[in-house]
């Protein structure tokens, strides 16, 4: 099942070329919280188990007429995996990987959805795309074993982990507003029994920059959940960006970024460099 948010917070199930509006049916409300109707649905499933869905009688909207939004506009946490593909480790000349670095957090306020724009902060510092498989947590996970980890997954989505190449901490460089495009929907885990065999491709400006298969992850999805849950409790609706392969590169004003993951979907966003300012003009004194 593919679940999407559309038309200012409505919750839909993709059915062929249509979106079927199941907002009231799945959330029992027409006014979802800031975390969104899909987040509420994930919490309901975590608490009460799977929900029976009857699509008869629900309103339908043609998919190409619906304004899709980030399926999770404000996740509780966005966890990132640094250096989780060997080819990206090599291109960046890193000597360590996720196994040494652990995980990092991105601000949940950095999330945007399909069709929106990544806003470049600086005129003179690279801002790069990183195309990644996103994991959406479905059940509270604390100290879970890798063998049980996939039972805690609600589904999968495409995530762009946008990153400024400057000297700050990762949580700063990756947390600018608009730096976490997510979508176009969440595919439930039953449709992807093995997240370790998915082709991933990321194009920028019509040229393919990144191409991999999730089989090449250093920490696969189960291992990444097990490790992360040994540090922090993962809650329903939390998102893990699993890491990026080789081929990261700078974004420019007007670029289109397209991330396509086998059996998950295709996420496309734009790039807006019109508000970028020189790095030296950022706030804060630098004389001490
Ligand atoms: Mn990344």
From TrEMBL:
Q: Which UniProt keywords apply?
A: Metal-binding
Q: Which Pfam families match?
A: FAA_hydrolase
In this protein, which residues make up the domain named Fumarylacetoacetase-like C-terminal?
77-271
* Record's protein name: 2-keto-4-pentenoate hydratase/2-oxohepta-3-ene-1,7-dioic acid hydratase in catechol pathway
Q: What is the lineage of its organism?
A: Bacteria, Bacillati, Actinomycetota, Actinomycetes, Kitasatosporales
